[in-house]
Amino acid sequence: MTLSMSDRWLEKYVANFPSYELAAKAAEIRIAEALHGRVFDIHAITGRAKDPDSAAEKISRRKYGNPALQFDDLIGVRIITLYEHTVPVVAQRLRDRFEVNAKRSANKSARLRSREVGYRSDHLVLKIPRLGEGPDLNSILAKTFVEVQVRSVVSHAWAEIEHSLRYKSGIELPAELSRRFDALAGTLELVDREFSAIETSLVEIIHEMTKKMEARDGMKNDLTPVSLLAALAAFRPDMDRLGPRRLALPIEDAYRATKDLKEAGILTVQDFESVLASPELKSAILRYSNARGDVDPSNVSAIVVLGAVVGIKSPAQFSRVRRFQLDPDLVDAIAAYAT
Questions:
Q1: Do 90 and 115 contact (CB within 8 A), yes or no?
Q2: At what angle do helices 269-276 and 302-313 cross, to 10 degrees?
Q3: What does the alpha-carbon distance between residue 231 and residue 82 come to, in Å, rounded to a whole number?
Q4: Residues 6 or more apart from 156 whose CB is under 8 A from it?
Q5: CB-CB contact of 149 with 78 (8 Å)
Q6: Lowest mean pLDDT among 46-60, 122-136, 139-153
Q7: Most exposed residue of 20, 116, 139, 320, measured as fewest CB within 10 angstroms of its CB?
């Protein structure tokens, strides 16, 4: 019996599936690298190669005659953001970094009409540039599209449950259950918007606190993630901003940094500001800037500033924080305080 083109393709795909899994991991890493250095409030990035059984089912359901040309999602990367408003920003970043096939891509959110609710996600079908991992991996990525799905964590939860209960049930749900799915989708859309609004309000609180600190108000307050972000903005206004909405850091990073500072004995805003104004810190930042050669001392990032503050106050605590140790120039800059 002569095998069809799709059957021959599927046999080859099954045989090469481990290589496709490696290619999916490589695509995940390349996507993560493209988003590195900017804050998009990303919750998770995961890559996968399509399970062979799922590929066979799709070939049958879609009646693919030439799967090699028809599959968009043999390799998939999913990006889950914390907030809905960052989804289009992430998608645009990927369009700027990769060759995106517009005809194969689809913005599911934009397709919803004014009175519709439902699946909200941006699907980008793109190609990953040549890598250095070897000819087999490059061969797979050269001929295989990568589908990148970008959606918020709330939309992701709805999509996964809806797909499991509605699509995989194998039946057409009664109208009442369909309406309940639609009602839930609308509710979760409001939840997404409310989370974004709450984040905006918190950022506004930080900006207001920054103005007070610039006037030396609240200096004796306890150091918290919010007051740390306000203090960085007030006392290092020219620093490279690594967080969303022009914050010095993402709030989660500020939370970890506050713990590091307290372990180093810095308990209040005034404690923190006194180290920022010290000649020791200025000297450490200058050494770091000179070592890098391309960084103005006033522009160094919050991570560098916080590392220098912790290193000056507690070299032992500095040595325990991995993100500080990953920067050899920072380690060298505060080496004088390690003795």
A1: no
A2: 100
A3: 25
A4: 78, 80
A5: yes
A6: 122-136
A7: 116
